[in-house]
Design brief:
The protein has 271 residues and is α/β, with parallel strands linked by helices. The protein contains eleven helices and eleven strands. β9, α8 and β10 form a beta-alpha-beta unit. α5 runs parallel beside α6. The protein is globular and about 55 Å long.
Length: 271
């Protein structure tokens, strides 16, 4: 069994190839175990998925202690490196970083959205936040992997003509502050993705979705890391809703075909 520090270094090395790092995002222990059994080398969490499962909407509305408790359960359920989506850090970034490490995770996403204003945090303030995460982790002794995210494209901040330069300015500042990977959700155009890879010359995380290039194509474009966000969890909710509608309207069970057998589900947690 690897130590937490060893998991952190393994996770960091996965960002440097030779294969693209594909991270499914778990929202509970069962989904994490399924991703482990599928053969993924590491697992991410989804802040939205965890929040939804516990009765909260996304956007830092879940109490941080609940989020970190869910991360701790997921980290304990699998032997793989786990990285957690911790939104904008829940106010007290130093406390959140210490809580992340205590939860057994070895990486985190940190976004630059200011949830009070729905704008972006000033670059200088975000740089200070990333530097603080690095200092706190170093003081504890676990060199966690920081995935620094900007929502310039996802939130469509600013004029389209200046959006790329604004995003790169932010990400380059985050790299200088100590990020290990940078996250640019909201991109779908191959030319812009390639341009971002060539401009940043640093591990780039793309958020996968139905309209994006395939993972093999993203690898060809030079993307280092692909995550799914809340997509798998929301797909599960979609299936649940369709099953509920079938039961209510026709009283049939056709959509239950393909259900994970009880024995296999139970075996996910048999010691």
């Amino acid at each position: 069994m690897k130590t937490q520090s060893e998991k952190a270094e393994l996770f960091r090395s996965l960002h440097r190839g030779p294969e693209i790092l594909v991270l499914p995002n778990a929202w509970d222990c069962a989904s994490a175990r399924i991703f482990e059994q599928a053969g993924f080398p590491a697992i991410a969490t989804t802040s939205a998925g965890i929040a939804f499962s516990l009765g909260y909407s996304d956007g830092q509305r879940i109490p941080p202690d609940l989020m970190l408790a869910a991360v701790a359960r997921i980290s304990a359920a699998v032997p793989l490196p786990v990285t957690a989506d911790l939104e904008s850090g829940y106010g007290d970034v130093a406390k959140t970083t210490a809580g992340l490490i205590a939860a057994g995770a070895v990486g985190l996403n940190i976004e630059d959205v200011d949830h009070s204003s729905q704008g972006l945090t000033p670059i200088r303030a975000q740089v200070e936040k990333i530097a603080m995460i690095r200092r706190i982790a170093a003081g504890i002794g676990v060199n966690i992997v920081i995935n620094a995210r900007t929502d310039v494209f996802l939130a469509q901040i600013g004029e389209p003509a200046t959006r790329f330069d604004r995003a790169c300015e932010r990400l380059q500042a985050y790299i200088a502050a100590g990020a290990d990977c940078v996250f640019l959700p909201g991109l779908a155009d191959e030319n812009i993705i390639r341009r971002a890879v060539e401009t940043l010359k640093f591990p780039l995380n793309i958020l996968a979705g139905a309209n994006l290039p395939t993972i093999p194509r993203l690898c060809e474009l030079g993307v280092a890391r692909v995550s799914i966000g809340s997509g798998i969890m929301r797909a599960t909710l979609g299936l649940t809703r369709r099953i509920a509608q079938e039961l209510k309207t026709s009283g049939t069970y056709a959509l239950l075909e393909g259900t994970l057998p009880f024995g296999e589900a139970n075996a996910l947690f048999e010691k």
